[in-house]
Amino acid sequence: MRDITCPRCGNHISHTFKEVKKVIKCPHCNMELMIDGRSQRMLKYTRTLFVAIVVSILMIGMMNLGTVSSYVALIIVLSIMLALMNVYDRLCLIITDKIFHLRYVPFEKPDVKEAIKARKAKEKKKHGL
Questions:
Q1: Contact 25, 31 (CB under 8 A)
Q2: Domain extent for 27
Q3: What is the Cβ-side half-sphere exposure of residue 107, based on CA atoms within 13 angstroms?
Q4: E strand or H helix at 30, and its extent?
Q5: Any bridge partners for residue 23, and if so which?
């Protein structure tokens, strides 16, 4: 179990490795925290390594094709890989948290209305209106 301190209210947010997420919400003040840039890079590296391992296993399996049993083994390996891909993102998050300890920072949702107003104002200024 890990504890994260909420920057807004100062309360501790406890979570287990099974509860690891990209964005977590403080149960006390509802502030959303997301993983920081360093943690996102580490997650990207973990995903790349995971895909490299999967591709390597498939390549090794394909090199030994020729008999019926090798085709059955390849089908089993492909089925396992497809099952792992369903939990791929979650698995990579758990591995990254276990190895590199994910760090969370405050997450501010962008105000869509303000972004639209700013874009329209920029377009008007650009066209000289």
A1: yes
A2: 1-36+103-129
A3: 16
A4: none
A5: 34
Report the pLDDT value the prediction gives residue 68, as an integer from 0 to 100.
Answer: 67
- The per-residue pLDDT for range 5-45, each reduced to its tens digit, is 888 888 888 877 666 777 888 888 888 888 888 888 898 88
Question: Total domain count for the chain?
Answer: 2
The verdict on pTM exceeding 0.70 is no
Q: Are residues 85 and 108 in the same domain?
A: no
pLDDT at 83: 77
- Residue 30, both tokens: 């509802």
For strands 104-106 and 32-35, give the pairing.
antiparallel
Q: Do 43 and 95 sit in the same domain of this protein?
A: yes
Q: Are residues 46 and 70 in the same domain?
A: yes
